[in-house]
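tool_call: predict_structure(chain=1)
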Amino acid sequence: MSKEGTAAVVALQGVWKAAFDSRRFDDLAALYAKDTAFCGSTRTLYETPAGVREYFRALPANVVRADFAVPHVVRLGEDALAATGEVTFYALDDGKLSERPYRMTHVLVREDGQWKIATHHASPRPPA
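tool_result:
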């Protein structure tokens, strides 16, 4: 993958992390394409940025932070990238910070000149 594609994904995931960590859910939802497919940690498939916002608003307040590893990026076309990697969520449980490792896949598309998340899939990382 080109460094440009990886840099675009890492930059978007950095904005995602900053919005997630500070619980700015409107900013998070703005990172998603008008038509999106979002599969988080619930059974519901969200198809709009408004649905994505509601998903994040419903997350438990004890989930306080996320850290992404540099993903593996595949260029799907001039205006589409697929990024697969790992993200670790951190939760405060009884005053102790616990790790919740996940796999994350984002498909990014260029929409109105901006990279947006068209597909989001997260699943718990299987144990080693």
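agent: The two ends are 27 Å apart (CA to CA). Proceeding to next step.
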